[in-house]
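ARCHIVE RECORD
Type: protein–small molecule complex
Small molecule: alpha-D-glucopyranose
Source of inputs: curated submission
Record status: active
Notes field left blank by submitter.
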Amino acid sequence: MNKILFFSFLFFILFAAKIFSSGFQFIGDVTSYIKKGNIVEIHCTNAKLQITILANDLFRIQMTNDLEFPIDHSYSVLPIQKSPTIFPIEKKGDPIKISTNELVLIVQRSPCRLAFYDKAGNLICKDHDSYGMGWQGAKVCCWKELHDEAFYGLGEKTRGLNKRGNVYSMWNSDFPGYTATQDPLYQSHPFFLSLYQGRGFGIFFDNSYRSHFNFGAGTDQFFSFGAADGEMDYYFIYGPGFKKVLERYGELVGRQPLPPKWSLGYQQCRWSYYPESEVMTLANTFRNKEIPCDVIYLDIHYMDGYRVFTWDEHRFPQPKQMLDNLKNMGFKIAVIIDPGIKVDADYKFYQEGIAGDYFCKYPDGSLYQGQVWPGWCHFPDFSKQSARDWFGNLYRGIIDEGVMGFWNDMNEPATWGGTFPDIVQFDDEGRGADHLKMHNLYGLLMAQSTYEGVKKLRPNQRPFVLTRAGFAGVQRYSAVWTGDNVSSWEHLKLSINMCLGLSLSGINFCGADVGGFMGAPTPELFTRWIQLGTFTPLFRAHTHYGSPDQEPWSFGDEYEAINKKYIQLRYQLMPYIYNAFYQSSVASTPIMRPLIYNYQNDPRTMGMDDQFLLGDNLLIAPVYQENQTARKVYFPAEEWYDFWTDEKIVGPIEKLVDAPLEKIPVFIKAGTVLPRQEVMQYVSETKLDPLILHIYPKSGVSQDSFYEDDGISFDYIKGMYCTTAFELSVDQKQLTFISDRIAGKFLPADRSYLTKIHAVNQIPRLVKLNDKRLIKVTSMDQLLENEQGWNFQPEYEVLNLKYPDTGKQMKLEVIF
Ligand code: GLC
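STRUCTURE (tokenized, with ligand):
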């Protein structure tokens, strides 16, 4: 009898617990806390918190309602050095106060809530009073007080730049022809920036399960982030500048290393160029028409029955010879590599995959198969080190043949009918996990396998990988494009928002299919997109199978001439663009930046996503509507020069600017020294001579620097680079410009400087180079022929100066 009573009681307790747990549970009150090194562990009534102080401005917050925290592992976060940060904890009084030199975290005890303040006592971000952190079954969530914050980031998201008022989720998804509000798409970046009363901070939620972000949609109470499973594990990064937040985030999850310089050139793709004769005709047309191009892509038709790492012998009978010929013409070939390995007993890589136990399985141990282009396929389990190594090494054949670029697609992973079933099993580096955890990581890990494999096979050459899917950290391995967009004006505009979101999430080498992938652009749309693409980090035209031609010359002479002019401009700006890639590789600085990044305190820039900056100094205002020949441009508080006319504009001001078909509005910040080069048909076709420096004067002193290296190897890591510092001093009577190689062992080829000073409205009295008089020559032609001298073009108000770059400090003085 006693036994029956006992079991009835137990059953009741379990049943009650189940009912109870069907609602949200919250962490409760602080019961005790303990400091262990740089960790403060806080015990609460219903859960445990672990606060790790990683730096003065970087705290990690973990919550568990289990007895112990799970084994610490992340595919995104790089091994972090334990911080030497000293932080006192104030024990007296109610809240626990943890202070660093930059942040104060106040932990309220009842209920347990976290609030971050700056050292002056200004609130930055605070848990919501009623909820804080909690869970429901496997779900976890964190709720924070909502004020009038703006929200940015989250990677490749549709809708506006400021994410306020919307919900988003992270579940890598293949949506060909997605809409302007579709969510989620191909990439997951559970990182966002927020701006509250001018103070910027970032939160990285390190959880790969399907996650959700609510930035005040349907509520004025809180913003929240949570996931279907896994840990509440987030990093809080304080700015107050976005620049600093992104720099820290880059330290945490890694940065885009310098890519091969040729991948910054124009790239031509379609689904698909084949057979060989078509590829050669394409290549010859570029060269005959003198439209620069570096990369040609081969989409799925180059393969034998879509078996990756094979060639269709009829379409491409002699790949090595073709690749050699193209190389001699300056082209780099990139090929598509999907993850699916065709189930085909006669296919070598299928056999290897089976033998090595590299494929994903069902829980009963049978191999998972899904359908993609080749039909039924098995899929490498990229969360297994041996499978990553194996797949990475499969690139050997095509690398030996001369393939230079590697395009990873369908890696959400996508299969016909959707994605893998939830129960598909992964190794998870020995821990074992199901698809629900690994789905969002699949693209990241495939890109890692590709990058590391290619790097091993072609040592000391920077790999170029392009991926469709990814997760936080994918920038360490790959560039990203925004998937299957549409040839429409709406998508041209959307591509700006998506790239700006990526750029604010650490993904700096990004771009959209120029011209649009689905459908066919009108000539005008294609030209406007080429103009935009000229200023996006990745500049690749691409289109769907069976669509009309979409090359720069496919729309008639008038359009071809404009398209050519812009592709040429891309190459002229290459030194500047490469410099922006360098900044991104060392400090995560976005290459394509929303204005809010540079002008955080200017409320006008808060949601501005129809104009952007390229690097530090160029302001780009694309035309994104049909038949538009003018557009409004907002100029933040600086002096600006119109790139086309040199007209000076003093911000802050909004202006209607002329934008006929042949012109995309571009402006240059006063004080800029813009490094340019002559047009080339492909990157490094000829040496950088002359190095053309366009100077846009500004009163006072302006400084800048210019980075160069060989553009291809990793030698820069060993000091083989060259940094030149520029200093410009301008007053009414004199302009002084000093250039000085200040760092690095790389020696640029012998060359001249051609320095072009804009907005000069009077002929100088005297021009000196390193304290010696520089001679005036009568014409531009003569100046270019001479080793040194100067010439004034009153019609352009440009003063041109030519002199050898001796590698030493060069001081120019222009006296009026
Ligand atoms: C996917 C890719 C697209 C590619 C096509 C064929 O739709 O997103 O870029 O052309 O597959 O491989």
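CURATOR ANNOTATION: Residues 2-21 form the longest helix (20 residues).
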